[in-house]
Amino acid sequence: MNLGLAFDPLIPLPFLIACAVVAGAVALLLIVARSRGAILRGLALALAVLALANPSLTREEREPLSTVVAVVVDKSASQDFGDRNRMTEAARAELETRLARLKEQGAEIRFVDAGAGAGEVDGTRLFTALSAALADVPPERVAGAIFLTDGRVHDIPANMAALGFRAPVHAIVSGQAGERDRRVALTATPRFGIVGQNQTIGYRVVDEGAPAGARVGVTVRRDGEVVARPIVTAGQEARVDVEITHAGANIVEIEAAGLEGELTPVNNRAAVSIDGVRDKLRVLLVSGEPHVGERTWRNLLKSDANIDLVHFTILRPPEKQDGTPINELSLIAFPTRELFQQKIKDFDLIIFDRYAQQGVLPMIYFDNIVRYVEEGGALLVAAGTDYISDGSVFNTPLEAVLPAAPTGHMTETPFRAGLTDAGRRHPVTRALPGSESNPPAWARFFRIVDTQGARGTSVMDGPDGKPILLLDRVGEGRVALLLSDHFWLWARGFEGGGPYIDLLRRLSHWLMKEPDLEEERLRLTAHGPDLVVERQTMGDTAPTIVVTNPTGQTRTLTLASVEPGLFRATFPADMLGLWRASDGTHTALVNVGPLNPREFAEVTSTTETLRPVLAATGGGVWRMADLAGGVPRVVAVRSGERFAGEDWMGLALRDVSVVRGLGLFPLFAGLSGLLILMAGIAAAWAREGR
Questions:
Q1: Among 588, 584, 587, 599, residue whose Cα is nearest residue 551
Q2: Integer Cα distance of 226 and 111 in angstroms
Q3: Among 85, 370, 406, 623, which one is least packed by beta carbons within 10 Å?
Q4: What is the pLDDT of residues 495-525, one digit of tens each?
Q5: Distance of alpha carbon 86 from alpha carbon 96, whole angstroms
Q6: Distance CA 508, CA 350 (A)
Q7: Consecutive H or E run containing 330
Q8: Is the confidence at residue 321, as pLDDT, over 60?
Q9: Which residues pair with 623 in a beta bridge?
């Protein structure tokens, strides 16, 4: 309990001061004039002024509060290296024992774990965790903070005023002095690249705790495939050119050979994600004659902003000569030599739409198309009655690449095209809208070209299992054969139409080797806190998948079928960095958080990073390996500015309390005040009346 005196003037303070000045002057004059009872009169005036000041006796009931000590334990991934976790846990247990003695002196101890899990932001953020732990504590109650860490902290404030309290902050560092480690540091990382062109990546191999200048073997991988094996000098910048092979993320890994006795090989590898951007896909569409379905192809291809379409329709074949001079014809001559000899390799896809030989293309140009396909090009033949005519493109060198020969007949009867068993698995036709019902919920066709000797993969069929859509690989290229010319009925909405946009767009992009439409493909993607592994396959089962986390630990997953040809598994992404999935044949990569986490950049333990900023608070830094029990002695400091020594650390314990009750007794209120004033006046009157 504390007693005190408080004032609550009855009049404004300036008037109270004026009254006090006047009363003092009168009392002084009485004393100077040696007036009888001058002192008592002055006392009576003082009591009157004091009554106007309205003094009160106060009584406070205070409850002492504990001071708070925060201990932040580093649980980040870098603590897994060596025996740091064991050292940290031993130091934590010893520190709990030593801090328990401070509880008897009114201290509250708070232990906080920081930096664990993939949900953490990049790097070790101990000061952020400290601020969160002390958010409900007034600054005057903070006795200090202690970090148990490896010294690699990535949120050190620029000045200690940002802490919000004035108390010592100490650090006890795990790990050993003189640790060795090798890492790859990126110096130039392009973000985008044109598909088919090279991008240059700059990097440096850095050896910590070892002399620079060593010759180091480096392996460069693109999406898991080795593309280069240069030899570089440690400490010097090097560069490597990598071709961008596909649209989307191209993940390039640069991995250095290990250093003898190094702390961990995790940071021997750095990764760059380069987004491949396609220069416009060039498509050549040759229509053999005007027909009602021709517009379907043109509209579909023109609607895709990534496609540069060159379209020719043969309106006047060479045999149609009517004597009109060439310079008076409004038709554009078909530049056959330019397209099929000089610039054929510039096209990503060639489409023959109901094209039959009409003397427009010499046979040598069909030979060029065959070589174009075998060397990686794409060919789509949309056939109709032309395919069974004498001028069929099958009666050209294209016979070598086309997946089916015409019988010379057509089946003309209403039917609904359906998906084959392979078609239900193939990415081009899998889960086409309407295919889930039997028969499929799309419009009928009325004509199909009969073929024989089909090869490749039939993904759609008609009456008696006759193929409608055949897909095949020839050499490095791809070929598709459409054997009905009634897909335009779907586009016109006949009988409700059909998924012609989905089908024809997937078909054209499969021909142009879109990675997502590969029949055999492994994907690894991040969805929120989870990673999803997907395996596309034409088989009935999917192989087991081996997943490797950023630190090199592996786990085996068994995928479950989610639809024909697609298998999937989900697991938590509990670590930042580059994850890898492999089935032995295919490899997929995905990054969680930053590609090269700061947590794995510099992994050697250090006392120097924290020393300057902690010294500003009066705190100290020690190594666990240098101290008995792994921690210094704990000393309660109630005054002074020194909080650290060679083998001890101080905590600023303070006397802090909170008011729980307040009593107030006015001295001049009511009868007591009247009696005091009357006593003063009576004393002055009695002295004067003698």
A1: 599
A2: 47
A3: 85
A4: 888 998 889 889 988 998 888 899 999 999 8
A5: 16
A6: 10
A7: none
A8: no
A9: 173
